[in-house]
Amino acid sequence: MGFDRILDEAHETADPVHLMRVFGIAPTTAMKYVKAPTLTASSIPCLCDGRALSEISGHLS
Q1: Out of the domains of life, which is the source (predicted)?
Q2: Which of 10, 58, 16 shows the shortest CA–CA distance to 38?
Q3: From CA 53, how far away is CA 39, in angstroms rounded?
Q4: Could you give the count of Cα atoms lying within 13 Å of 21 in the half-sphere of its Cβ?
Q5: What's the rounded Cα separation, in Å, for the pair 6 and 12?
Q6: In Å, how far from its chain's centre is CA 43?
Q7: Residue 55: its pLDDT value, please?
Q8: pLDDT of residue 61
Q9: H/E element holding 10?
Q10: pLDDT tens, position by position, for the chain (61 residues)?
Q11: Which residues of 21-42 are buried (b: 16+ CB within 10 A; e: fewer)?
């Protein structure tokens, strides 16, 4: 069972009971997945100088 699948399902349904039933995880774990922020390119900092990944993505090749 992959981490990405649970996280994707949590963002799709936002239902901790559904996650508990489908993946067999504990209530506290299900709530953590539901409350986890959705990552986007603009929310991921670049480790080199602090700019967001979306700001430098055009320079990556």
Answers
A1: Bacteria
A2: 10
A3: 11
A4: 5
A5: 10
A6: 11
A7: 56
A8: 43
A9: helix 3-13
A10: 555 788 889 889 999 999 999 999 999 999 988 888 765 545 545 555 555 555 555 554 4
A11: eeeebeeeebeebbeeeeeeee
How many residues make up the chain in this entry? 61
Give the type of residue at 20. Answer: M
Distances (CA, A) of 60 to 37, 46, 49, 50, 55: 25, 12, 14, 15, 10
Cβ atoms within 10 A of the Cβ of 19, count? 24
Q: Half-sphere exposure (CA, 13 Å, Cβ side) for 40?
A: 6
Give the integer Cα–Cα distance in Å for 43 and 45: 6
Please report how the helices 3-13 and 16-23 are oriented relative to each other, as an axis angle in degrees rounded to 10: 150
* DSSP H helices in the chain: 3-13, 16-23, 27-35, 53-56
